[in-house]
Design brief:
There is one protein chain. By secondary structure, this protein is an alpha+beta fold. The protein folds into two domains: 30 residues; 133 residues, L,D-transpeptidase catalytic domain-like. It contains two helices and twelve strands. The strands form three sheets. A five-stranded mixed sheet has the order 5-4-3-12-7, with helices on one face. Strands 6-11-10-9-8 form a five-stranded mixed sheet, covered by helices on one side. The longest helix has 21 residues. The N and C termini lie far apart (54 Å). The relative contact order is 0.18.
């Protein structure tokens, strides 16, 4: 009986460790109003699992900007000093903008997204071929279906990250999209 109890505690401890490492409030992600101070470097963690880097990518521009890395599905909010103040994962839609430098063209406090979901904090930065590309947060917390047939350009964030983007990205703020 003691062996089973010890094994069960070990499993619960391991699952708790995994949950803490992937939780939205993990200390590697800055909170609103704080400075981005820690990052995971590419490599392996203590448990030996592969990690994505949260360090600001080289060659992502200069000055104040939003950096969107398509491959990493990650966004950085970068201040005028060139330092990331916040980074977070995003959920892209089936369509992606080409890598390049854009600017925020419009903002909308809320509405219905191109995928039919109620969204808030919409920050649009590019339109191409009838597809509008922008950052938004679904009110219900859902992410877009990357395999959907309809080509939409929504880049979904959590509601907290959407609020931070809304405060940061004003009309004409630079948006750098990298592969």
């Amino acid at each position: 009986m003691a062996v089973l109890t010890a094994a069960a505690l070990g499993v619960v401890g391991f699952l708790g460790y995994q949950a803490a490492a992937t939780a939205p409030d993990h200390p590697t992600l800055a909170r609103p109003g704080s400075h981005f101070s820690q990052s995971k470097e590419k490599g392996k963690d203590k448990a030996g699992s592969k990690q994505k880097s949260t360090a600001l990518p080289a060659g992502s521009g200069t000055g104040e900007r939003v950096v969107y890395a398509l491959h990493d599905k990650r966004v950085w909010l970068v201040g005028a000093d060139g330092k990331a103040t916040r980074t977070f994962e995003v959920g892209p839609s089936p369509a992606s903008p080409d890598p390049g430098t854009y600017a925020v063209t419009s903002r909308n406090k809320g509405g219905i997204g191109s995928d039919g979901v109620q969204v808030e904090h919409v920050v649009v930065f590019h339109t191409e071929g009838g597809v509008v590309f922008g950052f938004s947060a679904a009110v219900d917390g859902s992410m877009p279906d990357p395999n959907a047939r309809k080509r939409t350009g929504a880049v979904r964030e959590s509601r907290a990250d959407g609020a931070a983007m809304w405060e940061f990205a004003q009309v004409s703020t630079k948006v750098v999209v990298i592969a």
